[in-house]
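During the no-cost extension, the postdoctoral fellow (Dr. R.K.) reprocessed legacy sequence entries with the updated structure-token encoder. One reprocessed record is reproduced below for audit purposes.
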Amino acid sequence: MHATEGDQLVQHGRIVGQNDKVGEITQVLGDNGTPPYRVRFQDGHEALMAPGPDCEVRHPHPEADAL
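Re-encoded structure tokens follow.
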């Protein structure tokens, strides 16, 4: 898993009906974009995370910013 500041970290719900948690990666503490990451979630909560298999990194699309 590799990320940069500004990417989104999505933690998928683990049980049926549980929503995904989406946060913005504000700091990459590992080497070359590897975990751990400091993440700020939409509810304002911040956490230091070493994401597991229930997480994915979403990179922003620069061409969407040009529209």
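Residues 17 and 23 are 19 Å apart (CA to CA). The chain has one helix and five strands. The remaining legacy entries will be reprocessed before the final report is submitted.
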